[in-house]
Protein 1
Amino acid sequence: MQKLAIILSIFLLLTGCGKAQSGKNAAAEASERVEVPVFDADSAFAYVKRQVDFGPRVPNTAAHRAATEWLAESLRRRGAEVVEQKALLKAFDGTMLNATNIIGQFNPEAEDRLLLLAHYDCRPWADEDADESKRSLPVDGANDGASGVGVLLEVARQIALKNPGCGVDILFVDAEDYGSDEDEDSWALGTKYFVEHPFKEGYVATEAILLDMVGGRDARFYHEYFSQQNAPSLASRVWACAEEAGYGDRFVNRLGGAVNDDHRRLIDAGIPAIDIIEYNPSSGFNPAWHTSADNMDNIDAATLKAVGQTLLNFIYGR
């Protein structure tokens, strides 16, 4: 019985869980399952570090431009059909931001499109830092930005190795973090541009999953409020994938707080979207959020693994 339990556990890890519940019998569902790749956390960690090594990826800086080029080329190397959506966006303080959304499409001929996204720009100021002398400095953005991108780069690598057979779009979105708490509409400018200016005529994502701050040590992910209100079925399917993959302790099946993030732009455009984000309803964001401590010292490969494997299980179960 112990051996059987181990075998069943491995089978659950290697089979997809992203399909919505239906009336099919168990045998038919099992025949449709596709073996799921194993997410490489070390690879994802290296992708996070590579971004941080550029320096703070604040729009209009050399580090930002270098990261933009590297990200677009990284998706091309994985066989994606890549579009760079360039825009000049006005920030809340009047600064004109030279922004670039990077879209990589896998199986572009498929009508059903799963959109996966993460922002790659950095907060220009560490305005939450306990040290007032550091509050005017940009953040490294290891967790707040680079972690989600790192996970998606590893997802792209796995898709290149084993095609899931469904339409997957990866969006590295820009100009998310150049906002002011005094103006709710000043955040997520790149995603706002993305939904208002389709990169392809008639493009509409079927559903979307946003990753934000998914690399913190011992991070826990609660159901984000706007996600649960607008796409409860999608959230339930993703959290079920986490449970089956053995990460139910990381993906807590409880309602968390409401977060103003990129997914709200998608929801406003009529796209079912959820946000996988570290936000504890009791303590708030990760302690390194918008501080000089948001660096590689606070990135946990185990957290990247939990999020990345959950995402792969979802994708290969569609």
Protein 2
Amino acid sequence: MKKWENLPGDLRVDEVRKYYEILQKHKGGLFAKRVFDVVTAGILVVILSPVLLVLSILIKVDSKGPVMFRQVRITTYGKRFRIFKFRTMVNNADKIGTQVTTKGDARITRMGKILRGCRLDELPQLFNILIGDMTFVGTRPEVEKYVAHYTNEMRATLLLPAGVTSRASIEYKDEDRLLESAENADEVYIEQVLPEKMKYNLKAIEQFSFWGDIKTMFATVAAVIK
């Protein structure tokens, strides 16, 4: 982690300091977390390469557009990065609708429904983990539009890399259902869903432990299977 005085100005606030000091006490756990990320992601990329290839072909056959969905998200210290995801919507879907997905969203392709149901669309994020922009367990990366609405306390989640999964992801795995009947999905997400998810994310920082992350990974697998 960077020294406090080297953090971006919007992170050097009292509401964030509490979480910063907690993480400073877990330098060993954070190092183990990064080593685990690199080793595990590398092994999974090799093992799953045939699966990634088959899914890429199926996506290309199912609908027009690129195999990968690349979108700018926010990670550690407010850094912008491009997330890797299998495309599950029609091409340029983010330009013809809201940036959150609702149940029954007409933009989702046939193959996309299958990928989302099993969370297989997240597999390419193994490459984001290897690069260092993401980690297995951490706050899901949001687009700039939503990060702009973070409170000072919420910005504490930017002390760590964005994650593929988290306790909030498990609790809100059916997030699209919550937004299904919303007249303005973006507004409901920003004012109601995001603050509740952040309670889980901030608590995860308060209770951070390397083994706690491992438990969250297993809990995610169980939630997907269920």
Protein 3
Amino acid sequence: MAPRIADRKLIRIAEKVAAGTRLSFDDGVTLYRSTDILTLGYLANVVRERLSGNKTYFNVNRHINPTDVCVAACKLCAFGKQKRNPTAYTMSLEQVWHTAGIGYSEQVSEFHVVGGLHPQLGLDWFVRMFRGLKERFPAVHLKALTMVEIGYLARRERLSIRETLERLVDAGVDSLPGGGAEIFTDRVRRIICDHKIDGNEWIETARTAHRLGLKSNATMLYGHIETDEDRVDHLLRLRALQDDTGGFQTFIPLAFHPQNTPMHHLPMTSGFQDIKAIAVSRLLLDNFPHIKAYWIMMTPKIAQVAQRFGADDIDGTVVEEKIYHDAGAKTPQALRRDQLFRLIRKAGREPTERDTLYNEVSRDEALLTLAV
């Protein structure tokens, strides 16, 4: 049943949603500025169920972060460290392959591989790493390297983005995770991540990847110094690229965790902000098949609520997440497959296991044992 619309500015937007009409920049700003969270959630849920019905997707995946050494010094980051930092680490190739195999079972369908911008690890090192992973785990999908990492490697090797991506694909990379987008606005990016590629370069790297046949995700970091207009601009630039390439699978709003960063004075986002971020992204990104509520960042409970506010994905088992835990995340570093099932069912949704490309995975539940 539709709620009574408390914010009268949302009436016209509700009419557009009912008619399947694309929302505008001004509509996006109106959504972000509204406090009528029940109407936002209802409208986002209409779109969500139009696309995914009652299903909530998850996968059995493992995160691998080969190094936290990074030449950038982004104010938003608690993960990256200078090489001289005594707590910094860089795995050997053998350590990467060993980490991938810890607790490995045939249920693991994805390795999610991202790390810092290491001054001494070139493209050849990554090519060997990915080939080694594929040799050892040929059935596992490699979702690896952000647009930022790809841009850094291309610049370091004096190659084009296309040439760099072609070498990575040849080594076994199957898709891209979509991190590092942060906020595209130059004003914000100069303050929070001025050592990274700019917003236009991120977009063009994604465009090149999509044209090579790679699928990717896309992200947005919110809850720092950005404005409502910055967020809407970010979302609509992603929407425009999706119109062109159709290469994005999932959008993941990421809440900024200020602890242990140079921006530690900023407050954490609230559950209200997190739910709104999910709802607004679902309403504006009409051409994105999926919206993910990343439980690592927003807690499993908020991720459950998000399944009624526009999200249709809750991520996966993850196993040893480092980046957001370095920034103070208090969530677990992994969830078992059966825990994800229970979370989704308690949210009133149908748990649907997927692979990275959203092909549904069928398993014999009676015989299933989890080894991750």
